[in-house]
Amino acid sequence: MAKASDPPKINAKSDPPSKQGATTRLAQRNAATEVSSGQQTTDTPASKSRPPDKWFETLSPEMQKSLMGEQLILWTDSPLNNPHRFQLPMPLPERVKSFEICAAMGEHRARVLNVFNALERSQRLRVYLSSPEKDEVVPTPLRDAVKLYRAVFVAGRSLEGPNAEFYADALEPLGPSGVLDVPARECRQVWIDVSTNALPAGSHKIVLVVQSLEHDIASLRFHRRALPLEIRVSPFCLPQTMPIHIQLWEGTEGRSLPYEQWLDDMHAHYVNGFFHVWNNVLNHITRADRIREELVSAYELRTGGRKLRPVLLAKHKYGKILFGYGLFREFEMRLANRMKLEFMSPPWKAAFKEYVLTMREYLDSIGITPKDYIVELWDEAHGGTARRVLAAGRYFKEIAPEIRTMMDVPKKVSSREVLLMDPVTDIWCPSLSRIKNLPDELEDYRRTGKEIWIYQCPTDVVWQSPLEVYRKYPWWGWKLRVDGLAYWNYDSQKTDAWNNFDHGGYQDCMMIYPTPTGPIPSRRWEAWREGMQDHLYLHVLKTRLDRAEQSGIAKPAIQSGRNTLNTQVERVLSTNDPETVEDARRVLAETIISLENAAKPAQVD
Fold first, then answer.
1. Which strands form 146-157's sheet, in the order they lie side by side?
2. Distance of CA 595 to the CA centre of its chain
3. Strands (E), 223-371
């Protein structure tokens, strides 16, 4: 039986979305999505299936009576929990009176405020920041450190298939006005993002204000609520870069958008490995005997709608570049097959050699050397492709032995195929799900002495758990002791990222929502960043423990610290409770501070 607090579903046709008419499907899903223009659609299929008054009637008489005297109900929750439009905890939640955020220097933390409109009509609110002292202006560093967003509901296909559900996934800046519209008897969420990059250690206080903008204020109990927010910054700083490789596949190649903003956004979320595909330049080649001339022309003109050189140099500025989805695969699919070059025949080898050497020479000419990039030979090669990868990979190593290669390994690849491709692979990148199912295989990779990454490749991402898929991912990286974490995809969309139902097959797979002025983050993208910071906490603690051991601090204290580190990793990976993850970070921070204090020389009076 459905509870009164269960999220509504959009009942599509009896056929799954792939079999519905495109026009009908598009109309339904467009109506079901709150777009980023600031307008919030209330006349949606979901609200028609359960309008506010009908939803209200499902409550107990006591609950109805308690709500009749309310205007707004405010409560806090974990940023990892995805609220739905009709969310209201029962019994009524404890009203929020204040916020506290604890963080190290140089990190981002988030808190959320859920706002439920108990009235039978919509309300317009203003949410803004104020100084704790009357008539004082919020100091600039503190004002710049706290940003407010509203969680925008986006429709995504549920696991059940033909139905869709709303997910408060997109985080749109609330804007200078701070206006927030809350429909009748619905819930909206305010996201509070705090950056401590410019804040010194200590306590910093600010006030979050929720104010009604209704004209008939006299008839309403709720007028203005001031919620103190204390930011307590710990006396240690997190590193600004990850100690391991963080690889993100991206789908922004063909966009006519300000690419630097995308790179800045990825860099701010600890990405240091960027993706690039060559398929556009291969499409320019018309003759096998003119590969060098036509490739150079394509490099210097345009590819993917923008100049190639500045894009590559911008990626190089922030980290390494991974060329995919397979140097050999793209050559086969986009050139060799089109020109009917038989695999490993003399004409095929001549063309492939010219292709590889031209690419390397062009990158050398713009200051990107082989140590700055990696090539993927074939994306998720398996079956008969594995033997072809071995043959082509051996020839590639003859042509350019200084260029490192990477192979990603999905669950469907057999261990025999992995062993077959090992001689031509410098970096192994098995999927996390594969390693979970085949834990002994990780030791096989270790015995090769090669670099090991793991990767995730979820689809239909809107409904994916921010905790399980994103926040806990770096914790898995720590436990497995891998050299890199990879994820597909930053921004893969078919037509419109705000509409998950404008095409067949899987839904859009992205961390952000693109707009003409730059990316809008998702709840999942922010969970990714918090997870990376969790990894940095683990890294800082381990570094402090290693340093303490060398400096002669008592062994029991060091062993206690190592036990704490290992215990918190196991604790996080065995829970689905967001508060447990937050508490684990608190424990790590306290242990780091205690080690710092123990390392300080005692003061002499």
1. 72-77, 108-117, 187-195, 146-157, 164-173
2. 32
3. 224-237, 245-248, 273-277, 320-324
CB atoms within 10 A of CB 160: 10
Dihedral, 254, 256, 261, 265 alpha carbons, nearest 10: -30
Token pair of 515, please? Answer: 């707009």
pTM reported for the whole predicted model: 0.88
90 confidence band (pLDDT: 50, 70, 90): low
- Taking only the tens place, the pLDDT of each residue in 162-210 is 455 788 999 999 988 999 999 988 999 999 999 999 999 999 999 999 9
**Ramachandran bin of 270, using left for φ above 0, alpha for ψ from -120 to 50, beta for the remaining angles:** left
Radius of gyration of the chain (CA): 27
Tokens representing residue 295 in the block = 């490739």
- DSSP type of residue 470: I
Give the number of other CB atoms < 10 A from CB of residue 381.
Answer: 27
Residues in the chain: 605
Q: Does 463 score more than 60 pLDDT?
A: yes
Q: Report CA 134 to chain centroid distance, whole Å.
A: 39
Backbone angles phi, psi at 261, to 5 degrees: -65, -40
SS percent in the chain: helix, strand, coil, step 5: 40, 25, 35
Which secondary structure element, helix H or strand E, spans residue 116, and what is its range?
Answer: strand 108-117
Structure tokens at 287: 């003759």
User: What's the sign of the alpha-carbon dihedral 375, 378, 382, 386?
Assistant: negative
Closest CA to 468 of 506, 514, 436, 508: 436
Two tokens at 448? 């090769």
Cβ contacts of 303-311, under 8 Å, gap ≥ 24: 304/253, 304/254, 304/280, 305/254, 305/255, 305/256, 306/256, 306/259, 308/281, 309/366, 311/259, 311/276
Write the CA distances from 74 to 25, 94, 548, 565, integer angstroms.
35, 8, 45, 36
Is the alpha carbon torsion for 483, 487, 488, 492 positive or negative? negative
User: How far, rounded to the nearest angstrom, does the alpha carbon of residue 570 sit from its chain's CA centroid?
Assistant: 23
* Cα gap 354→399, rounded to integer Å: 9
Residues 6+ apart with CB under 8 A from 49: 8, 9, 10, 11
DSSP-derived secondary structure letter, 17 = G
E strands present in 131-201? 146-157, 164-173, 179-182, 187-195
